[in-house]
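User: Batch of two.

Assistant: Item 1 of 2:
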Amino acid sequence: MRSHRTYPLFDLWRDADRLRRIVSAESLAVARVEPMLRQSNGFGVVDLTFVRSGEIAVVPFVHVEGAMLAEPERSPLVWPRAAADALDPATADAIEEKILPWLLANFLGRRLNDERLRTFDDAGGAIVERARAYGFLGASPYARVALAAAPYVYAMRLARGKRVAAIDDIGGAAGAAMLSFAADAVAASFGSDELDAFARAWYGDRFGIGPLGGSFDVAIGPAGAPLPAAPVRVTLRSERADAIPVARPIATDVLFSFDPEDSERAGAFDVVAPELALRRAIGGAAPAPVGGSAGRLLFVLRNDAARADDADGDDALALARRLRGEGFDVDLQLASAVGDLAGYDLVHGFTLTAAAEIGPVLARARAAGIPVVATAHLDDIVREGVWGAGISAGIHMVTTDDEVAVHMIALERRALEAENLHPKGQEPYAGYGDNVRGALASCDAILVSGAAEERLARESFGFAGWVAPVGPFVPVPDPAAEAGLGALVGDGDFVLAHGPIAARSNFIVLARAAMAADLPLVIAGPVVETGYAALLRELGDHRVVLLTTAGPDAVAALYRRARVFADIAWEDRGSARVAAAALGGAALLLAQTHYAVEAWRPGLWTADRAALGTVVEGLRGAWAGAGGAEAAACAARVAANADPVMTLAGVAGAYAKAQSLRPGG
């Protein structure tokens, strides 16, 4: 009996005694099958409703593997984890035997282009038809369920440890039930005793249903509904232009999304919550510029720096602001957009892992006699970064628990391979090493994070020029900026991860670890790889929040509210974000290979980015150590390393050295 953990919010029927008491082949009343897309590939899910002695149990979201129907090597059904844990294999086999002819007729007969229902019991069929009228989970298409439940799923981030009231929204009953995963208590009233009784019979005792009493922290309902007083209020079906949008659900790749770029806007809701006080940055105010400098500088960024912004781009932007304050003219351009270099006094490249893009610009500058400096951000991605980013996402393309578990063990042991991906080291593309060596050969000086990065530049890529270790540039956030975090993430502590939502960020492993550690995780960043984002959404539960459209003020505020900042990415893009988090008061969990570990330990926590168990323990350690003496001492070392006066002096020294090496310098 195989099982899966995808979209765990649908796994509402987790009472093992109830499932064992009601679920059997004989009590199966209705089966509903629906075709879906997963990672743009077709597959199906079946919902099963059981009725016994007036009691109802639903097993939704049972995966149907079409390939196993056509060429049966094993059971075509993959059960949700709670059902797999509660039911004995003989019961599952009997249910499968009962529905298999019907599944074969629909799948192999190529008739499955819309949902289909098969009624085995007329009385149970009448119950399911009524549930369909209300849009209940297990009886209705998933797009309809997800659209109605979306505001409740959003509200999970506001409801951790709270008392929640939901009212007058029978279509949102599934969402109210899902809220019970996060809230201390959920009470709901759907407008009549009859509706309340039916919702109670369908969803069981996941939440209280009936007249609302007592005080509440969060209240949800349509505009005009008699909601009880609560400091956090969610108003359904808002018409306001600035309301929180709900993307049209596409089962399963886009089900609960509040990013209008995922699909067209299909609804919206309002959230009102108290504003939160933010911790002040440890680093204090930015130093006053001295001024008096002059010169025209060109900063060259990787081509996807705007679309996939990361710590290297933050570093460049912060340095540009500092230099402009001193009197320099600084142009920032993507490598592919750089034209005539005439008139520039110095060219500064960023992130030499993108050497194929940046290298030709640096070579042109050198040929023109213009001084060239680079902030290397030169991670050894050939060692295992390319392999890890490529293979870790593929692990989660499979859905069954046993397969994922085996693959995760192999990942930790560096024993997992796929086509063109092996842990023995390979370049991201043919000629990568030559491109990096060529880019470095064009540089008069490079800036590195420390000794480890300098060794990589010299020993692996043959750089023989001038090297300066320089800390990251971290902008001081405006303490007066309005962030709206109360409505964005709630008022509790959380783990923060910030980066492009793509395989190289390793967010799926981080999310799995946060769920295993029972810690809330906020992932902020743009969606760069849509397939990876879809996997992350389907594997996350109420503890994982994705913020794909948060503005700069909100992101800065997240750094000043996070309890822990985690970066276990497969590629080190510099320490600007790690430093910003530490200066904002967060404890740090970093990949063992991150350059910041060498510079700032002890007082931070590390993990093997390929080993889920070490990430779990690292998160727990950082969470417990946040605010303690060790984390504070680490933050003090970060502040010294990222001192804005000293870092600027280091860059000025590199510029002067590069100038001295040019003719007439």
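Item 2 of 2:
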Amino acid sequence: MNILLQIAGFFIMLTIFIFYFIDRKAEVRSNRQFLYFGIAIFISLILDVTSLLFIDYLYNPDLYNIPTIITKVVCKLYCYSCVVVTYFSLLYVLMDVFYDSKKKYRITGLIALTVNLVGFVLMMLLPIEVYQDKTGYNDYTAGYPVTLTYIFTFFNMLLTVGFIVAKRKKMYKKRVLGVIIYLSIWAFGALVQAIENYLSNNNFILLTVGFSEAIGAMVVYILLENPALNIDKVTGALNKRAFSEYLDYCYETKVQTQFIIIDYDTTVTTSIMGYDSFARLLNKYLIRFKVKKIFKTDKNKFVAIRYKKNYDKNIEEAISNFKDVFYKENNIHSRIPVRILFISNIFLFHNTTDILSAIDYIYEQRRYANEDFINVTSDVVSRLHEKFLVDEKCDIAFANKRLEVYYQPIFSRREGSFTAAEALVRLVDEDKNLIPPVNFIEEMERDGRIVELGQLVFEEVCRFMSEHDINDLGLDYIEVNLSAIQCGQDNLADVYIGIMEKYKINPKYINLEITETGDAVKNTLLKNMERLKEYGVSFSLDDFGTGHSNLNYIVEMPVEIVKFDKTMVTKFFENKIATYVMSSTVNMIKQLGHKIVFEGLEDINQIRAIEDLDVDYIQGYYYSKPLEKEKFKEFLIDNNK
């Protein structure tokens, strides 16, 4: 009786199961799908060995009397188990293909299952032959059920390969590799067994199918289900990949959990005690906190999972332990900035993508920058979803190039007329409603689309200039904003000069507004500015008085105009110290030879309050809000007579 390879395969699967159950897992769908796949292989190996034993008993009734019908049924079940194994490998692939649609996953799985059940019925109805060779060593089967086994297993395999080829870009790359290796090993084993059976002439036959299944399962486990793939190497916590899959598991099984997300400043921790040390201490502390699971989802974020029933107690402990216990126990004397984000009900969010986007968004927002504890209530989630809806409208509008440039007039105190304007972009949604910059500029700066947006705005301004005589309108120049991201583009000057030449624009009518940028892009910006100034373009320093803008930046950059931000201008009217500081600053800037713009003036009292200041230009709602180009042209005609 030839069962050596089957026994070897049996022990391979047993070893895989031992490691599977003792290792730390994220309890995700891929874990469970692999378990079903492994169980199918394990059962197939048991049926393989059992069928060989029964055939042996059938030809040796003195050992044990097994009815022929039972032997043949077991043999048919073994044949069908090979089909089942490839069916579960198909489901393992469909899990990635239809990752975002359980409905499509179930429908496709049910269609394949229906076809496989047809195979099961045919196998059970059609006759099978069982044999033992003259040596009494080789037991094997033949007949229609065996042929159907090859047909239906290769049907499942072809379907699996077809989905991999069609959806490979959507799938997890290692899963593609693992499944392809598994199918190749299985097909090779089946081919070897089929050829040997045909050519053996009653010699020794290797029954390789079951062993091939076990080897293939081992490859899939090592590549895909190895717990090391889900473990953060520094702390031993589960990683971001595991967290994403665990969220899928929670939404799929409706598990009521609460999330405590801890974000800390890695710059501070590294300087005080080393990056790894703080992360390990934090992980150790959370383990003692009796959480269900711990994930390290980023270089500076931990996520602790607990069940919803511990809601009130958890919030109090999460806050008080960090403030009163954690630093003291670990002998940390410097206060490390730590922010705790609490999500009491994950089902306030629609799915995994939604909650991950929300977490990232909250931590990136300035409004939450100084909060130690952020409780994500239903009201917070509603605001987030409104923001995401606006983001989606912005994405659609930008993708379809639905944007309009508005112009806000700038009043020249010396000329007594409106001699300049600032170009301001608005996106237009599908209902032709305007979307203000506050809803999309920051997001576009994060993902780099601001470069394309800036070029589109600049081109629209140049188109406007080419269609109208700027001098007749009384304008000396139009200001166009440059984002910090644009300032770091090596080809900025070339692109903008190309646009001006395309529309035959005299560069003296163009003023580019820059804001303070980081040291990393300062040299690039300077090179672009020098090239553009040589071409004839002028520059303004925007938002002076906010952020890190300072006189040193004015000295370094070849700007002609300095614009005081509305926030700083407002302080001038409200605070005596700010009034003194700004008056001195204005005088200093004027001595450097620069012109000055005050932004955000809204009433006559503010206009009168700055009469004694040597301010060149005023921009604000007192004179005009931003206007679309036709109304802007009418405004200039009416007011610059």
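The first helix runs from residue 4 to 22.
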